[in-house]
Every structure is written in structure tokens, then in C-alpha cells.
Design goal:
53% helix; 392 residues; 12 helices; seven-stranded mixed sheet; two-stranded antiparallel sheet; alpha/beta; 13% strand
Length: 392
């Protein structure tokens, strides 16, 4: 059932009057971005709802058919073998949908929506040609490093970082005499529970401990390594429209290893663009060590942690990341949630009707056909059996 979300909207007067120093096109940038993200968020809500419906249906179907077909096996020549094959088949069926959303595709969508929202709210980025290829390879490369943890070089420990996307942006500093690089590291997860395997803080501590002991002071690469958690955010790539507890909370409702966790896709994108990148830029230009870190220093730091550089976007901006004023992150996200609900109710009912009356019944018929073939085999031909894969 569609729940009622908070009816807090961004006041029109705040949006228009709070940005009086900007041009008219820029006054509309927040509303345009909300409309743009709402369109895609709406599609993700339907996708996740249908995904969960399908997962729940298969889970319940497995339990129901196990109760129904185990007694049928008792009527065959080899009841034990029949039950074993039915169970093996149903076990495979229960694992066909293991995730709660289309996670690899969602990460690619997050990247595109983030960069497009940046363009609408902060201005154009020029993507720099380099040896670094910009690809989202979630689930293909394993972000893991084996790091020395003792001076006698006898012990090695493996760490998982979980960093899925990296953005390195070159910005001019206020005096325009030179430029600085601002990094953004994104860990994308479908739920908070899956975050707990990440060891980014301990991995960095282990990596820089020995170099710091050998030197009088840290070099740029060591400073970059030590700073990675400050530039890292965790984004849950789910949608929050159907969970009232999530919607009622602010975008950041918990942390992991002092890294903010954004509760859903809209929170992540809006927070990164309107708050994090501007704040990170201010952090860099106000810190003597961070100002001097070059793109090569960041690349060497990432390579030393065995983080795959195929996931890095390198870009340049012609002005600092100054966001439009007049609206808070939480207010923008609530409006995205609200507008999504206003548009989605009828379409969801139509989609669920199709699922329940066609797709789900087709799955049931296909599965029952397979189970009946197993029963017929043991009823007519004895105990020899070859496991037949599920057909849909």
C-alpha cells in the first residue's frame, strides 16, 4: 500500500527569493533538478516494487510447492530420490533472485544521475582525457588489497574497501592563481547491513603506519591516503518511498566508521551535489596539505590500496562548486518523494495487475510443469534420474 509521506514542500517564495543574486535560469535549477530526478526515481520505485513482488512470490511459491509435491513423491517407486530432486530444484528456484533491486544497473544509473544533477546545479564539468577510463564496474572487479601488517613481512591481511565510484574534480581556488583537486569516493550498497564488511579505516591505517615511522613527515601520497575517509560517502541505492521510517528521517540518519550513510538514492545524489562537494572544496582550499595534492598523488594513493582506477572520473570545472541557495537537502529530497507519490499510484496498480495475472501465473505454470515431470519420472521409470534445469 502507498503510504502518506510528509507533506513538507519547498516554499516557492524561498526558492525564488533566496537566490536573488543569481540569474533567472539559475533560479529554476533546483526545480528542474527535482523534476528530472523525480522522473527517474518514479521508475526506480516501480522497478523495486516489482522486484520485491517477484522475490516474495517465488519464496512463497517454493514453500507452497514443497508442501504439495513431497506427498506426491510418496506415491512413486523411489520416494527418497524423488523428494531429493524436488528439493534440489526448488532450492535452485529460491536463489534465482538473490538481490532486493537491480544493483549493478542501479549503480550505473546513480553515476549518470549524479553527473547530470551536478551539471544542472553546479555547472558544466569538462571530462579530462587520461589513461583512466570512466566505467562503473560494480560486481566485476574486487576492491580488495593485501596489506603488510607486521614489520617482519610475515603477516599479510586482506581488506575490502567497497568503493564503487570515484570523482576527481579540478577546481580553481579563489585567487585563481592555481587549481586544486577535490576527490569524492562513493560506496554504493543496497542496505546498511551489507556495509559492515568494509574495512576502509583499518586498511588505510595499516597502509600508512610503516611509511610514517620511516619518515620525518608525511608526503602527499600519505596525506591523500589518510584523507580518503573524509572524502568518502556511503549511498544506499534503494528507493525510500514505501518505507515511512526512512522518509521521516533526514538524509543522514546513521554513520559507519564516521562516514555518513545516505538512506536512499535521492538523498545521496542531492547531498553529494548540494552539500558534500562544496564542503569538500572548502576543506581542501583551507588546508595547506590538501591544497598541494595533485591528481598523480591521488592516483598513486588509490593504486597503493589496489582500488581499480577503471572506476574514476577525472574532470575539470571553470568555477568553484557554489550551489544555488534557498532550499535544504532534506527539503529537496522530501519534494522528490512527494512528487513521486503523486504520480505513481495508478501506474503501480496497473503494473501489479499485470504481474499477478500474467507473469506470476506463467512462472507458477512453468514450475509446476517441471515438478510434475519429476514426479512422472519416478512414478514410471524408477530411481535413475537426471536433474533437469528450470525452464521459464
Amino acid at each position: 500500500m502507498i503510504i502518506n509521506v510528509i507533506n513538507e514542500m519547498i516554499p516557492h517564495s524561498i526558492i525564488m527569493n533566496g537566490m536573488s543574486t543569481r540569474s533567472r535560469p539559475f533560479n529554476n535549477s533546483i526545480n528542474e533538478t527535482i523534476e528530472f530526478l523525480t522522473y527517474h526515481y518514479h521508475n526506480f520505485v516501480i522497478e523495486d516494487l516489482l522486484f520485491r513482488t517477484l522475490r516474495d512470490f517465488i519464496k512463497n511459491l517454493v514453500e507452497e510447492l514443497q508442501r504439495e509435491y513431497f506427498p506426491c513423491c510418496e506415491e512413486t517407486i523411489n520416494a527418497f530420490a524423488c523428494k531429493r530432486e524436488v528439493k534440489e530444484y526448488l532450492d535452485v528456484l529460491s536463489k534465482t533472485l538473490y538481490a532486493t533491486s537491480n544493483e549493478p544497473v542501479r549503480l550505473g544509473a546513480f553515476r549518470v544521475l549524479l553527473l547530470e544533477s551536478y551539471k544542472r546545479l553546479l555547472g558544466d564539468l569538462v571530462f579530462k582525457p587520461s589513461g583512466v577510463v570512466d566505467l562503473a564496474l560494480h560486481g566485476i572487479l574486487k576492491e580488495e588489497s593485501v596489506i603488510l601488517t607486521s614489520r617482519n613481512r610475515a603477516m599479510l591481511k586482506s581488506y575490502h574497501f567497497g568503493i564503487d565510484y570515484m570523482l576527481l574534480v579540478e577546481y580553481p581556488i579563489p585567487n585563481r592563481k592555481h587549481k586544486v583537486f577535490v576527490p569524492l569516493f562513493v560506496i554504493a550498497k543496497s542496505s546498511f547491513e551489507t556495509i559492515k564488511e568494509i574495512d576502509i579505516i583499518e586498511a588505510i591505517r595499516a597502509k600508512i603506519e610503516e611509511p610514517l615511522e620511516r619518515k620525518d613527515g608525511p608526503d602527499n601520497v600519505t596525506v591523500a591516503l589518510r584523507s580518503i575517509p573524509k572524502f568518502t560517502r556511503i549511498v544506499l541505492t534503494r528507493v525510500a518511498t514505501y518505507n515511512e521510517k526512512i522518509i521521516e528521517k533526514p538524509c543522514v540518519n546513521r554513520e559507519y566508521q564516521s562516514i555518513p550513510v545516505y538512506g536512499d538514492l535521492a538523498c545521496g545524489i542531492i547531498s553529494l551535489v548540494l552539500k558534500d562537494l562544496p564542503d569538500m572544496y572548502k576543506m581542501v582550499i583551507s588546508n595547506e596539505e590538501l591544497v598541494g595534492i595533485t591528481i598523480n598523488d591521488w592516483i598513486v594513493a588509490l593504486l597503493s590500496l589496489a582500488i581499480p582506477l577503471l572506476q574514476v572520473t577525472v574532470a575539470s570545472a571553470n568555477r568553484p562548486p557554489d550551489p544555488p541557495g534557498g532550499a535544504t537537502v532534506d527539503a529537496v529530497v522530501r519534494k522528490i518523494h512527494q512528487e513521486t507519490l503523486e504520480k505513481i499510484g495508478k501506474e503501480i496498480q496497473q503494473q501489479l495487475f499485470v504481474m499477478r495475472n500474467h507473469t506470476l501465473q506463467d512462472i507458477r505454470r512453468s514450475v509446476e510443469k517441471k515438478l510434475n515431470s519429476i514426479i512422472d519420472h519416478y512414478r514410471n521409470y524408477g530411481s535413475t534420474s537426471t536433474m533437469v534445469e528450470m525452464s521459464t
